[in-house]
Design brief:
OB fold (Dihydrolipoamide Acetyltransferase, E2P), 164 residues, single chain, 2 domains, five-stranded mixed β-barrel, 5 helices, rod-shaped, alpha+beta
Amino acid sequence: MNYLIIGLLILGILLLTVEIFIPGFGIFGGLGIVSIIISIVLTAQNVFQGILMFLGIAIILTTIFSLLIRWVAKKQFYSSLILRDTLQKQKLEYDDMDYFIGKVGVAATPLRPSGNVDFNGVRLDVLSNGSFIPAGQKVIVVQVSGNKIVVESFTQENQQQRSN
């Protein structure tokens, strides 16, 4: 009987240790606490003694785990898992969309006002400047703000304005 109680207590401590270093949605921690409580229930002669034993074990384990976590945090292998450096500037995926200003493409779908335009094999979601543009018509990019590309119908007048 004593081996069972000691085994349950050690199993509970091991399960709590596993929960601290390998989080498992509380499953290991819950099983560890249940194992410790069962060992206390089998050992305690009354409720008051059981409560005192549980509080004593909780205080001892908290102290040991706090020291263990601080010790592990100072070791080299643990610090290699933590990113200490921060990125100075995060590059957004649409930073280079200004390249498309002035480019001519063909409307792959009708633009009412949004749709797709094909720029030499690159298909992008765009917005027209408010007017309806049928599929197959040439368009020119007039504005890019963030990831929003604004186009209008391509005419000779647009081409002359862009070249000036």
